Structures are given as C-alpha cells and as structure tokens.
User: What shape does this take?
Amino acid sequence: MKKIGIFYSFKSKKTHQQVKYIIKNLGEKLCEEVDIEDATLDDFNKFNNYIFAAPTWFDGELPNYLDEFLPMIEDQSMKDKKVAIFGGGDQKNYPENFVDGIGILAEFFEERGAKVVGFTSVKGYKFEYSRAQRGDKFTGLALDIENQAALTHERIEKWIDKIKKEFEKN
Assistant: This one.
C-alpha cells in the first residue's frame, strides 16, 4: 500500500489524539502526518491516499485552517486519488449540522475527481441534519467525543479496517 498523508491541525488536541490512534491501527510506516496549517502544494502532491480531519465548527463550518488550505488545492486534479475523512461533532448541542465538515470536504474532493472512501453508518447517532449524510451513510467517520466518547476507539478500528481495503485497491 502507498503511503497515506494524514492532514490535520497539530494544534487540535482532540484531533491529535484521534490521529495517534488511527496511526497506531494503520501502522506507523504507512502514515505521514502533515500539519495542514503549514502544508504546501508539494506536501499535498506527494500522496495518492489521504486522510483528512474535518472538525465541524460553530454552525456547520470548516475550521479557518481548512478554509485557507482548500483554495491552494482547488485547481488540482484528484483523479486516481483516494480520500478518507473523519471529523468530530456534537450531535446533542448541534443536531442540525452534525459533522457537516465531513460532508463539505467530501463534496470538495469529489468535485475534483477524488474517490471518497470510508463511508460509515448513521446508525447509533441522533441528529436532525448533516451535510455528511447520504442515505444511511456518512461520507466519512463521525466521532462525537462529547456525547459518545466510549465508542470512539471501536468506531476508529472499524473505519480503519474499511479504509485499508479501499486504499489497497488499485
């Protein structure tokens, strides 16, 4: 399997903990962490397989650092590239835009020809609306450590099994 670029903000403590667990389960040799706040176009173009962290801020928005990063890559063709997305949300306090960040990124990458992998079931969550929802799936891994912290590791492990298979396919 080709090396996977994991793009996230190194300043985000919760996301950093989740990334460490992802790397532990994927294997350190397969992963390269990239601080999205300092990432360059060269950093992005080194990979064909990506994992992006997409926390949802406020009322369904991407964090500022993603808003600043995405324009840098918006003209890049992502044909033959695969992207897995995970992100945190709070289904209890923000049920009307739960993990919207995942959906926003999925749309962005698909519009550029990437294959988004790692869809997960919406079962086990209670929310009103999410841009990440397509039918009975999220376009990535939804984590709610505010209300369902005990399920985080199990959800990550199942997601890793799924994306490993997708990343291994040609």
